[in-house]
Amino acid sequence: MRQLSLLLCLFATTAHAQSCSFAAVETRFAQLLTDANLGGGAVLVADRHGVLEQHFFGSYSATTVVPIASASKMLSGIRLLQLKDRGLLNLDAPLSGYLPQFTGLKGSMTLRQMFSHTSGYGGDSGDPILFNHAITLAQSVDTIAADYPLLNGWVPGGQFAYGGVAMQVGGRVSEVLGNGDWQTQWKSDIGTPLGITTIDWQGLGATTNYGIAGSAQSNLRDYGRVLEMLANRGVGNGHRILSEARIDEMMVDNVANLPIASAPPGATDPVRYGFGGWLELPGNGDAPLMHSLGAFGYYPWVDFQRNVFGMFMLRGAAGINATTIPAFSDMLATIRAAIDGGGCQPTEVFDRVFLDGFAPL
Asked: What does pTM read for this prediction?
């Protein structure tokens, strides 16, 4: 109770403070929706103390849930890192030790490679095996083991090739080691502790063949709860989800000087990818910005240098294109400038439950 009282005092003190303005972000986002002919969207900006900006446009509201495509990758990566924290897996061990049906060169892949697009699979985000709702995740991965060779002479650890098949395999490893269904595990071990109610892997249709890399769905604030946990060094809603060491591990670039065999539209040059998310490295030793941009336009990000996180939320059939990418870049630059200018104060607490012994930062 003492921590909660301190937090309430903090917000009583700052409630009358002059907050920085995000009006330019709202204007730019509204223009993006007009240019893309979309009926709604939402913006969230927050830090570890609370919400700095939240605005819903058009038909979108706090209850709007949308499929998030590749923004699923960061959510999935967090689960694998959690299993490492629990001592259940080694991210650099050969896959064959966890799934014996993977043999030969395929069996030498590691989970770190699978979740950084360096496994030898790639260029396969639209593969039918990822969207077959008539089978289970276990069945899809057995098919991959039997029928899917590594592509184009690629080898594990030899190139960056963006795709979804390798992460599908990693999701099955989680089921085996966690002794349960992927979605059920994620909800019980991550979603429920964070107070999340809308995130599941049914965004592209009812299935138990969960698209680990691309089939999740969420509203605005639930994914924000995940980002808050990352910005708060692994703690969210009073629960430690990841150790600080795993947060640091997410931010390690796994591409370095590897050749780029396959990259999606909108990938920046040079390509930098951590564990389940893209990295923007400042080049001066400061912490990076990490994001997990989805093809439909769902853009979650964490600026670890400024300890600020947020979301640009839309659902567009055209997805990521020449209209959306510049708008996202403009809005991120505006947000960074506002934060760096000082005076930004939260308008509300992001999470309202804190456990005894946990002092909010």
From this structure: 0.91
